[in-house]
Design goal:
single chain; 437 residues; alpha+beta; five-stranded antiparallel β-sheet; 12 helices
């Protein structure tokens, strides 16, 4: 019973997160035990003297809480990706370049010692890794389904697991109605594939199903298979909708690195643990390559700062979107933009100008001149302090997004004579779970 409850809660949270917040997985989302212990201790300390609230449990508040938490996490990860979370390493990340982004892009994931020269790689792309795509039958949108009303089911085998999908066809259902129902059913199941209804000519449409993964695994020519031969409910939908028609078979990527031909099941791979490469296109002619290497310190610094500014502005714009229905979003907006106002003079001196709406704008010429100056380390010291302040604020928001949701204080705790209540900050999960049940 507890497993089902946790699983259901996870599905609910994932729905809100994918709908109202960015969903990304980065190395900075994994933590050591000491870091998790630190988060727990922070929650305990935060709530020890916290007053008791009556929370707004409306759908808008749930959306807002999850969005703020996940966008704060995204901002933290952006800062972490620029060299780490220690103030000494902030904005010090080395940046890779690609001479031909239409073929391949690259991120630097290794380490480099002072004065060390890293190798350059030339990549020619012969073929990209492709997913499996099934394209169903073209059916008239408004025509009634030519299957009797009943409960139907079909099976999808993917990644060594078999999933059964059950659904009902009602007397008045049209082809388009059922296609859309199946698309939602498959996509929301999160089993490693997605589906969508694709319009055709003369008011027709078909169901398109695509695997999330690419490439061939062993001798199996398919990434997923759909059938209803041994399903538990009524069969017939696989043939009627054409769910088992494979229009594109999965294939591996083929590329040449410094004259050495290689293959990969995905379009992402690493080179000698130095670069993470993403293949973006096929060489238009034989011999066309993309050179992968490391940018200079000046170029790396300016790109890191531009990435920081984009992350900061994106967070502020997301908060501003909730101004109309979440009054306390103004408080969060003013707190975060206030961080920039404190450092406004120092930011302007290195090429970061504060706009009236609280966002930052980069003056590329001033920024580059500051980065090339002899005392660049001292010049950019205030910028590191600003970045560290933004990091602290994003951690606070991620720790307790309910602080910015409408609430009414009903009682203050007796200072120094109360027990810690470490789960109050996770009230938003309880709200979603109660609503879901």
């Amino acid at each position: 019973m507890s497993y089902n409850s946790i699983h259901n809660l996870s599905n609910v949270y994932n729905f809100y997160m994918t709908t109202y917040a960015p969903k990304s997985s980065t190395p900075y989302d994994s933590h050591k035990k000491s870091e998790l212990r630190g988060v727990y201790n922070s929650i305990v300390k935060l709530n020890k003297e916290s007053p008791l609230y009556i929370l707004d449990t409306s759908k808008d508040s749930r959306e807002f809480a999850v969005s703020m938490k996940e966008n704060a996490r995204e901002l933290r990860n952006t800062i972490a990706s620029l060299g780490g979370l220690d103030e000494e390493n902030l904005l010090n990340k080395k940046v890779a370049y690609s001479s031909n982004p239409d073929i391949a892009t690259a991120d630097f994931i290794g380490s480099v010692q002072e004065g060390e020269e890293l190798p350059t790689y030339n990549i020619e792309v012969n073929r990209l890794a492709t997913p499996q795509i099934n394209s169903g039958n073209y059916l008239a949108d408004d025509a009634p389904v030519a299957l009797p009303p009943d409960t139907y089911s079909f099976d999808i085998g993917i990644d060594g697991l078999n999933y059964e999908f059950q659904f009902s066809i009602k007397p008045n259902d049209t082809n388009k109605d059922v296609q859309e129902r199946l698309a939602r059913l498959i996509t929301n199941a999160n089993i490693g594939m997605k589906a969508q209804v694709v319009p055709g000519e003369e008011n027709t449409s078909y169901l398109r199903m695509e695997s999330n993964s690419t490439g061939l695994k062993g001798d199996n020519p398919y990434l997923f298979m759909i059938s209803d031969h041994r399903t538990s409910k009524t069969a017939g939908t696989v043939e009627y909708f054409g769910l088992d028609h494979v229009s594109t078979h999965p294939g591996n990527a083929s590329y040449v690195v410094n004259g050495d031909e290689q293959t990969s099941t995905t379009n992402r791979f690493t080179l000698d643990r130095i670069y993470e490469v993403k293949l973006t296109g096929v060489s238009s002619e034989e011999g066309e390559t993309a050179s992968i290497g490391l940018k200079t310190d000046v170029e790396s610094l300016t790109e890191n700062i531009n990435t920081l500014v984009r992350g900061f502005n994106s967070f502020l714009k997301t908060v501003a979107e909730y101004t109309d229905n979440q009054p306390k979003s103004n408080q969060l907006f003013n707190e975060m933009s206030g961080v920039a106002r404190v450092f406004a003079h120092d930011l302007t001196s290195v090429g970061l100008n504060l706009n009236l709406d609280g966002t930052l704008e980069v003056d590329d010429n001033t920024l580059r001149q500051s980065a090339m100056s002899n005392d660049a380390a001292e010049t950019f010291s205030p910028l590191k302090s600003f970045t560290n302040a933004v990091l602290r604020k994003s951690n606070q928001v991620s720790l307790n997004p309910m602080n910015y949701v409408n609430n009414i204080i009903v009682a203050y705790k007796n200072p120094g004579k109360n027990f810690a209540s470490p789960y109050i900050t996770s009230a938003y999960s309880g709200m979603m779970f109660n609503s879901y049940c």
